[in-house]
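Bench notes, bay 3.
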Amino acid sequence: MFLVKINNQLDGSRVLEICGQAFIAEADDHSIDRAIELAGCWEPYQVTYARVVHLRNWIRENEEYQVSLVDIYDMVGCKRFVDKVINAAFVDLGGRYREGFLARMRENERIFFEEDFMDTV
């Protein structure tokens, strides 16, 4: 499922293979490592490139909000974590950003739970 293809000795970047697709991780990108670690708790059929990268993006976003990443044991726990980060990102923005908040919540639901989406990844 996950494979390091190339380590760049000059800048520390890595080319990772995630579910057959390449992902370039910069030297300081520890979010992808944490996302891969968490995806290791999922059932194998649940692991997709889109889910891992989506989780990575929200782990990185969470650096500002510090939502706890402990006690996550499955894919549903990861989805709930992302929901909490989205809530933290929008809590102080007020109602005028409600559509952006709802769009991100829908995207999170789609990525983690829609079978049709899983089949296209």
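Next record in the batch:
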Amino acid sequence: MPTIRRHALRHYAAIGLLACAASWAPIASAQSQPPQVVIDSTGFDFYSAYPVSDSQWRGPAFTTGTVPTRITEITLGLANTDPATTALLRLFQLDGSTELPTGAALASATLPIVVPNDGANLNANTYTAAQLGSIPSTTLLAGTKYALMVSSPSGGYIGLSDNDGPSNAYTFAGGFSTSAAGYVQTLDAGSTWTQNDQVTPAIKLTVVPVDDPIVVPPTAPTPVPTLGAVGALSLVSVIGWLGLRRTRKSAG
């Protein structure tokens, strides 16, 4: 094979390797970012609790930051006031205008209540991603309003800890902010919804950023392959073909 052709093929193979590395760089960068506490209202001096049942659902409402995220850990103040020993947590997206749920829950989890009830304390129950059902696999879109609603699936009552006033006592980070006065509730299992601007539910919410979907233009002047099954196979084929050509030249 002429020297110029060998150099050209090596050049193209090097370009392919660089393109593959570049395509993986944003993903590695996003996955390397540590979890961040974006909402915290667990630092109150005194707590009370609103009743939660199978028909009375209550929970914190918020607006996400500038990048998509996923929930990795949640701390809630849950008082076991009745024989109920579990809570049902639902994630709802809120309407941008009314700041109230308009559709079905996006995800849910059944949570054990393990901290003994003390009405004057937080009753903090912390749940990791492994305990949060389908919630951690649901992407929270950037700049979007959501609510985490607590109910009792067993028919008993649960106390959702709050700060007993003043309202809107959240600490936000990561671009997160309030929505729906910070508190959404329903007294009829989701048939009608209202905001509660009198107290702040106790919650600590931890998230990690996730990548936006990569959109490939339908036509591009200089297409660059990404690292997928086809791209990897093509790269291996090019390298193998170069080796075969060198072997035949040496044998000749």
